[in-house]
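User:
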Amino acid sequence: MSTRGDEILDRSLSKVGGKGLFVKELETALADGRADIAVHSAKDVPMELPAGFALAAIAEREDARDCFVSNDYGTPADLPAGAVLGTSSLRREAQLRERFPQLEIKPLRGNLDTRLAKIDRGEVQAAVLAAAGLTRLGLSARIRSIIDTKDSLPAAGQGALAIEYRADRPEWLGWLAPLNHLETAACVRAERAVSRALGGSCQLPLAAYAECAGGRLTLRGLVAAPDASQVVRAELEGAMTDPESLGEALAQMLVDRGADRILAALS
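Assistant: Predicted structure:
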């Protein structure tokens, strides 16, 4: 199905309703009985689902990191001053502006083929995209370099697929259970809790990323002003058995460090 999020290419998502544009029409198909399940990029799923809908499974994560794509340069640091770097995300934009104030950062909308074509036509010299999207579409050869999460912290749910179903059809929960990856699900639930606690949407430069090892989660979060004049970071570790509480605690740490003032200025 093609959604409004796919079709609106001349404006940033933050100005036309947010990432929920990719989800709403699929939920309508679920409600109408035209679809039994809907598969979303987890980072596009709103933090609060409408009544009657739920997530049945979160599949094992692909690479959650951002990547650098260019025909002429290997990394963002290689771009000359004044070069145009495209991105579709306020989160990426803020982190890029913080690290590379000499670059011109421009919005880059459209599906992957559209965005890659803009690079090939020279409309932008490079772009920062989600590595998972390129990999899943067999376009990993276009990736010039992977950006470490310490330099570009991912969005909540980035790289994971979420499967949504109608809550009045509980049989689907059992059928889809084998697709639920416990460690990925714990990480994404922690990340989404950060975003939910801070009122997260694509209108906010907000990042949250968790990693799981030995039954423990390491969760990092970031809130930034779009121009990178203020950037707040926090990190917290906790058990993977209660990811939502960990996410809420990290959100409070970010607020205590000034995230509330950044968010208030954006509202």
